[in-house]
């Protein structure tokens, strides 16, 4: 199974992405991105992080994404910025990358890690393509206290319900063979996003006909999703974190 956004995330966009390029820079500095390094950017989307890393650190960045449209857009942006010799975008399933073993110094992913259903598999695939002593780093949404039944029910619809806890992410990395695993709780950054998140969630009430037409949920399931989502946001249960380890 390849990674794919829940139907809610696809319609109203990324719900939770605090920090901007300041966080991108912090992450790059934490793992020591340097000139001429080879960096893998997982789920690169429209290429913003990849282009930032290449232009800021003069490294080579290889962005992969399952979406053909996003690869076209990111390549277009790279061409416009005259970065095609530093940034390379490929339409690829991140679970089965065609790169040779020990290709990259760094594996880098922002926010989108929650969209991979099989996290152990994606971390092991990154381990395969990392050089000896290479580093992995990613940031993403974390959940703190969500009822397991509710989590199972709504996880396929949006990563707000499917994200692991800080501790669970740490276990995923350790079980995938990484050493010196570190977790940084960045939920303070998430606080600034709650107003935006609340406004975006309100839009769902006006899009019920679209969701019910393009998904397998029924009216009651959709209504329950709205109610539980509003409660989750109100309680500020969703946080954010940075996670890193060494091959």
Description:
It is a single chain. The chain has helices at 7-12, 20-30, 48-57, 68-80, 119-129, 148-154, 159-162, 166-175, 187-191, 194-203, 208-213, 219-234; strands at 38-41, 60-65, 87-91, 104-110, 130-143, 179-185, 238-246. The protein has a seven-stranded mixed beta sheet with strand order 3-2-1-4-5-7-6, sandwiched between helices. The chain contains twelve helices and seven strands. Helix 5 (119-129) links the parallel strand 4 and strand 5. The chain is α/β, with parallel strands linked by helices and 247 residues long. It has a domain at 14-146 and 162-191 and 238-246: Vaccinia Virus protein VP39 (Rossmann fold, 3-Layer(aba) Sandwich). The model is unreliable at 1-5 (pLDDT under 50).
The third-level CATH topology of the domain at 14-146 and 162-191 and 238-246 is: Rossmann fold
Helix share, percent = 40-55%
CATH superfamily of the domain at 14-146 and 162-191 and 238-246, please? Vaccinia Virus protein VP39
Q: What value does the Rg take, in angstroms?
A: 18 Å
- What general outline do the C-alpha atoms trace? globular
Short note summarizing the structure:
By secondary structure, this protein is of the alpha/beta class. Helices cover 44% and strands 21% of the residues. It is built from 12 helices and 7 strands.
Give the secondary structure arrangement, pairings included:
Layout: H1 7-12, H2 20-30, E1 38-41, H3 48-57, E2 60-65, H4 68-80, E3 87-91, E4 104-110, H5 119-129, E5 130-143, H6 148-154, H7 159-162, H8 166-175, E6 179-185, H9 187-191, H10 194-203, H11 208-213, H12 219-234, E7 238-246
Parallel strand pairs: 1-2, 1-4, 2-3, 4-5
Antiparallel strand pairs: 5-7, 6-7
């Amino acid at each position: 199974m390849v990674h794919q956004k829940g139907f809610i995330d696809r319609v109203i966009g990324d719900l939770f992405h605090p920090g901007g390029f300041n966080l991108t820079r912090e992450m790059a500095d934490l793992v020591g991105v340097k000139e001429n390094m080879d960096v893998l950017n997982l789920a690169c989307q429209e290429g913003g992080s990849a282009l930032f890393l290449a232009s800021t650190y003069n490294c080579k960045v290889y962005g992969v994404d399952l979406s053909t449209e996003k690869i076209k857009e990111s390549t277009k942006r790279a061409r416009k910025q005259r970065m095609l010799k530093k940034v390379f975008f490929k339409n690829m399933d991140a679970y089965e990358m065609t790169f040779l073993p020990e290709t990259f110094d760094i594996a880098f992913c922002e926010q989108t890690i929650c969209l991979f259903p099989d996290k152990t598999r994606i971390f092991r695939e990154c381990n395969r393509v990392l050089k000896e002593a290479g580093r992995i780093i990613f940031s993403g949404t974390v959940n703190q206290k969500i009822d397991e039944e509710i989590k199972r029910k709504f996880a396929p619809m949006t990563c707000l319900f499917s994200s692991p806890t800080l501790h669970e992410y740490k276990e995923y990395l350790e079980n995938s063979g990484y050493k010196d695993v570190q977790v940084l709780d960045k939920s303070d950054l998430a606080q600034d996003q709650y107003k935006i998140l609340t406004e975006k969630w309100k839009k769902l009430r006006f899009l019920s006909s679209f969701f019910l037409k393009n998904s397998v949920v029924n009216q009651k399931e959709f209504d329950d999703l709205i109610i539980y989502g509003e409660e989750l946001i109100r309680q500020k249960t969703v946080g954010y974190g940075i996670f890193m380890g060494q091959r």
